[in-house]
C-alpha cells in the first residue's frame, strides 16, 4: 500500500477538493492512504532543530516495513515516465509492505528523516507548500497508474 504522510493539515478547500478527486480516480488502480500529522507547535516559540526533531518522532512509527521516499527540492527529478518506472520498481522489488511518500512541514525535514530515506525525489526545484506538494504528488501517482495500465495519460 502507498501512504502519503504529511506534516500539517490540508486546510484550503480547493486543495481538499482536488485531493478527494485524485484519491477517487486512483482508487480504480490502488489504495492510497493520506496521513496528516499535526504540526509540532508554535514556529515562533520552538527552535527549528527541536521542531524538526518533534516531526521526526511523528514519522518514526511509519518507517518499519516501508520503502521511504522523501520529497525534497534537492532530490532527483524525473519525468512522468521515469517516475512510473521508479514506482513500479519499488512496488515489485523492494519487498516493502508500504511505500511512504514523506512531505515535510513548514521547516522542512530533520537530518534523521534524511538518514531514514530510501530515496529522495523532487517534484520541482521550486518550493511548494505541503498542501500543493500533496496535490501534485497525487496527480503524478494518478498519471503513473495510467501509464502502468497502458491508458492515455495526457489530457
TrEMBL record:
It is found in: Cytoplasm. GO terms for cellular component: cytoplasm. Its EC number is 2.1.1.177. The keyword Methyltransferase applies. Transmembrane segments: none annotated. Pfam families: SPOUT_MTase. Its main location: cytoplasm. Keywords: Cytoplasm, Methyltransferase, rRNA processing, S-adenosyl-L-methionine, Transferase. GO terms for molecular function: rRNA (pseudouridine-N3-)-methyltransferase activity. InterPro entries: Alpha/beta_knot_MTases, RlmH-like, tRNA_m1G_MTases_N. It is an enzyme of class 2 (transferase). The keyword rRNA processing applies. S-adenosyl-L-methionine binds at residues 71, 104, 123-128. Homodimer. Specifically methylates the pseudouridine at position 1915 (m3Psi1915) in 23S rRNA. This is Ribosomal RNA large subunit methyltransferase H. It comes from Petrotoga olearia DSM 13574.
Amino acid at each position: 500500500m502507498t501512504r502519503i504522510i504529511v506534516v500539517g493539515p490540508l486546510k484550503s478547500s480547493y486543495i481538499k477538493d482536488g485531493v478527494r478527486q485524485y484519491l477517487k480516480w486512483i482508487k480504480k488502480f490502488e489504495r492510497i492512504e493520506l496521513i496528516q500529522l499535526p504540526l509540532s507547535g508554535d514556529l515562533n516559540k520552538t527552535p527549528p532543530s527541536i521542531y524538526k526533531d518533534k516531526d521526526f518522532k511523528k514519522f518514526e512509527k511509519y518507517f518499519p516495513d516501508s520503502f521511504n521516499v522523501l520529497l525534497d527540492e534537492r532530490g532527483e527529478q524525473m519525468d512522468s515516465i521515469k517516475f512510473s518506472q521508479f514506482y513500479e520498481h519499488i512496488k515489485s522489488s523492494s519487498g516493502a509492505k508500504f511505500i511512504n511518500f514523506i512531505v515535510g512541514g513548514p521547516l522542512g525535514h530533520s537530518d534523521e528523516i534524511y538518514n531514514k530515506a530510501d530515496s529522495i525525489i523532487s517534484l520541482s526545484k521550486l518550493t511548494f507548500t505541503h498542501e500543493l506538494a500533496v496535490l501534485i504528488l497525487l496527480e503524478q501517482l494518478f498519471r503513473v497508474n495510467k501509464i502502468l495500465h497502458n491508458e492515455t495519460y495526457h489530457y
